[in-house]
Amino acid sequence: MFTGCIVALITPMDMKGNICKISLNKLIQYHIHNGTNAIVVMGTTGESSTLNYHEYIKTIMWTLELSKNKIPIIAGTGFNNTFKSIKIISALENTGIIGCLNVTPYYNKPTQEGLYKHFKTIAHSTNLPQILYNVPQRTGCDLLPETVYRLSKISNIIGIKEATGDLSRVNQIKNLVHKNFFLLSGDDSTSYEFMLLGGHGIISVTANIAAQYMKRFIKYMKHHQLDKARIINKILMPLHKTLFLETNPIPVKWAAKRMGLINSSFMRLPLTTCTLKNQNIIETILKQLKLI
Q1: Which residues are catalytic?
Q2: Is 137 helix (H, G, I), strand (E, B) or coil?
Q3: 16, 214, 240, 289: most buried by Cβ count inside 10 Å?
Q4: How far is CA 212 from CA 45, 198, 236, 239, 289, in A?
């Protein structure tokens, strides 16, 4: 449940900025149909920072309801306030989520000791499995391998989403942690190399709109059919890069709307809709991949 192709799900909204349950259902059914291994709801790609507490919980509960136990659900529960994370996780106990994804605290810029105590305190507040999430280009702090090692000794901290794009981190972490600790790529563009080095899967932005491609890519990697995996990786590389022409999830949300997976590409401020220039670039890639 914590390996393979996991999608970092977008959060569909209507033109007034309300969460769109109809579009959310379309997305979930798309991933069930295409064999995505699990869904992360309310992560960075899900615009979690723009939702209030009640919307946050409601979106997670809707995702659980609509999935009907056909696909595992992981909840993004990371904040720069330790006790806010604990409050959210407490509300999600016994709801059916299989675990939590916790990003390093943004803006605060804690020390490594602060990061250790933050994640330790959260983990000790719950029995739910916890996945660390390191994305320093967004958060302003870097969870170093030595700190990951310390945290891996806590029984319900089971893995990390490593999104630095620094492939040397795979072996650095792998050589420190126990063999059952999961290493998940958080960077579509380097996921091939990440898994070659021993990664167990990916939490993917691209999977939002190319789930069938990403599922096949992961399947080939797991079965060591590297030539086939390399071909798909090469085919997808223009899409991986195009989806970051603007701040994620701006491009992927527009692409999902263009494909008919959601009814609106509306984004809450301070994020704005995709520029016309980049829309044209994305559309060209979608056509090349026969996604539209």
Answers
A1: 133, 161
A2: helix
A3: 214
A4: 19, 22, 11, 14, 11
Residue type, 102: N
Q: What is the dihedral of CA 281, 284, 289, 292, to 10 degrees?
A: 110
188-211 confidence digits (pLDDT tens)? 999 999 999 999 999 999 999 999
The answer to whether residues 148 and 117 touch, using CB atoms and an 8 Å cutoff, is no
Buried/exposed code over 206-215 (b: 16+ C-beta within 10 A; e: otherwise)? bbbbbbebbb
15, 233 contact by CB (below 8 A): no
> Which tokens go with 118?
């933050």
Distance CA 13, CA 48 (A): 12
Closest CA to 218 of 229, 234, 205, 207: 229
In the chain the domains, ranked by start, together with CATH numbers, are 4-235 (3.20.20.70)
What is residue 36's three-state secondary structure? coil
For 210-224, write each residue's pLDDT tens digit. Answer: 999 999 999 999 999
> CA 181, 184, 186: angle at the middle one, nearest 5?
150
Question: Is-contact 251 27, C-beta < 8 A?
Answer: no
Residue with structure tokens 């994020």?
271
Cβ(281)–Cβ(30) below 8 Å: no
Distance CA 131, CA 181 (A): 10
